[in-house]
């Protein structure tokens, strides 16, 4: 057991008030696991959705439970069968979905959920890549099999997953259109979105264009609207799965549900693209661990940072 670390955790499902910064112990890493001293952790909406108990059928009822998915840091120990990393190596990646734990001073995760951090990429920037980059890749590449020359529409193209999806689509040789708020139109255009719609002023059911892939990264589009934007043979990527959508997806192959599933090959590709400045997720605000609960609370209540909320760990 390793002891003396602090992290954000909670002893029951609920709202922001259940979060605490508390001491905890970590077991030694198992055969395919890696213990990482966290340098930076990024905040994602999935963090508070898990804490609210929205996925308790998966996460269970064992408490206390940790928070946080995305991080960067330095390897402290490796399991017996780990071959890709050594103690002292700089890495980034994701914690395991059920256990979480990135919003703390140390975390144990699977070897396959990590990649080496390029020297040219800061720890803070590396911490932002995991969930947005993996989710974008799972949808566009794994599910949609995106090809060069195809037309993509990204709903929410200025959010973290949307930003990653825009950049991955462009790397794949696709042409990208999208929607976002008026304040983010210039940012989306700078990323390479060819046609940007203000979502407040645009009725997406009336768009004249049709697309090979529609990715609802904002999780605000109805299935019927998304399907209506497709070309023959196209697909709608949905980030907000539920029982009804699972059933519909079995019947209508145009609807593809995306559940973030990291693999080291994806993370290594993201690292390469980020080191070459072809992929970047914006940093919004960096706070120390003792300021993280307040920032999570504000983000959960709708505060917009214009980039990722990031927590800097200090030991």
UniProtKB/TrEMBL annotation:
CDD domains: MDR1 (cd08267)
Source taxon at top rank: Bacteria
Residues of the Enoyl reductase (ER) domain: 14-311
InterPro entries in UniProt: ADH-like_N, Chloroplast_QOR, ER, GroES-like_sf, NAD(P)-bd_dom_sf
Gene3D superfamilies per the UniProt record, alphabetical: Medium-chain alcohol dehydrogenases, catalytic domain (3.90.180.10), NAD(P)-binding Rossmann-like Domain (3.40.50.720)
Protein name: NAD(P)-dependent alcohol dehydrogenase
């Amino acid at each position: 057991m390793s002891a003396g670390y602090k992290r954000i955790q909670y002893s029951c499902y609920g709202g922001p008030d259940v979060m605490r910064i508390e001491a905890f112990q970590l077991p030694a890493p198992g055969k395919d696991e890696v213990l990482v001293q966290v340098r930076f952790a990024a905040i994602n909406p999935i963090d508070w959705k898990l804490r609210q108990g929205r996925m308790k059928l998966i996460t269970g009822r064992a408490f206390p439970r940790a928070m946080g998915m995305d991080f960067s840091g330095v390897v402290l120990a490796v399991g017996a069968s780990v071959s890709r990393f050594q103690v002292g190596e700089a890495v980034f990646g994701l914690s395991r979905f059920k256990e979480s734990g990135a919003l703390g001073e140390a975390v144990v995760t699977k070897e396959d959920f990590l990649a080496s951090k390029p020297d040219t990429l800061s720890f803070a920037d590396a911490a932002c890549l995991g969930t947005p980059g993996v989710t974008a890749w799972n949808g566009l590449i794994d599910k949609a099999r995106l090809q060069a020359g195809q037309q993509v529409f990204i709903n929410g193209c200025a959010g973290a997953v949307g930003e990653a999806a825009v950049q991955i689509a462009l790397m794949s040789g696709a042409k990208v259109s999208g929607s976002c708020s008026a304040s983010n139109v210039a940012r989306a255009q700078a990323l390479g979105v060819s046609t940007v719609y203000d979502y407040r002023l645009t009725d997406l059911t009336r768009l004249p264009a049709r697309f090979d892939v529609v990715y609802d990264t904002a999780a605000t589009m109805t299935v019927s609207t998304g399907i209506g934007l497709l070309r023959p043979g196209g697909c709608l990527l949905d980030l907000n799965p539920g029982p009804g959508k699972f059933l519909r997806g079995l019947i209508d192959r145009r609807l593809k549900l995306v559940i973030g599933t990291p693999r080291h090959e994806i993370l290594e590709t993201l690292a390469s693209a980020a080191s070459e400045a072809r992929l970047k997720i914006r940093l919004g605000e960096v706070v120390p661990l003792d300021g993280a609960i307040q920032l999570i609370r504000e983000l959960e209540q709708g505060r917009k940072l214009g980039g990722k909320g990031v927590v800097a760990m200090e030991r």
